[in-house]
Specification:
The structure is a single chain. The protein is an alpha+beta fold. It has one domain (9-101): Uncharacterised protein family Ycf54 (Alpha-Beta Plaits, 2-Layer Sandwich), CATH 3.30.70.1860. It is built from four helices and four strands, in the order E-H-H-E-H-E-H-E. It has a four-stranded antiparallel sheet.
C-alpha cells in the first residue's frame, strides 16, 4: 500500500447561506475592495468564494455542516486568519472555523458540490 504524503495547509472560513452572503450583505463590494487593496500591496490573493463547499462533507466537519444552511451554503475560504476574523466582525451572522487540507477527507480545499449545467464543478471565485 502506498502512503499519501500531503503538504498540509490551514484554511480558515466564514460560512453562511448563499442568500445572506450574496444578496443581503454587500459582499461583492467588500471582496472587490479587498482585491484592489491586495493588488496595490502586490500581495497574492489568498481568499475565495465557494458555493456549496465540499469540505463540509468531511467527517470531521459533520457538526459544522449540521449548523450550516443546506443545500445553499456559501463560504469564503482563506489562508489568512486575520481576514476571516475581520469578515466575521463585518458580517456578524456567520459560522467561522478552520480545517487542514489537502487530506484524504478534504483533497481539494476549494472544491464545490455545486454543478453547472454540463455537470462540471463550479470553480472557486477569486475577486
Amino acid at each position: 500500500m502506498i502512503e499519501k504524503k500531503w503538504n498540509m495547509q490551514t484554511y480558515y472560513y466564514v460560512l453562511a447561506s448563499q442568500r445572506f452572503l450574496l444578496e443581503e450583505e454587500p459582499l461583492e463590494e467588500v471582496l472587490k475592495e479587498r482585491t484592489r487593496h491586495y493588488h496595490e500591496q502586490e500581495k497574492e490573493i489568498d481568499f475565495w468564494l465557494v458555493l456549496q463547499p465540499a469540505f463540509l462533507e468531511a467527517p470531521e466537519m459533520a457538526e459544522v455542516k449540521a449548523q450550516s444552511p443546506q443545500p445553499a451554503a456559501a463560504a469564503i475560504i482563506s489562508t489568512n486568519p486575520e481576514f476571516i476574523t475581520w469578515l466575521k466582525l463585518r458580517l456578524e451572522y456567520v459560522i467561522t472555523g478552520k480545517f487542514q487540507a489537502p487530506s484524504d477527507p478534504i483533497p481539494d480545499p476549494l472544491a464545490s458540490q455545486k454543478r453547472e449545467h454540463g455537470g462540471h464543478r463550479v470553480p472557486p471565485a477569486p475577486f
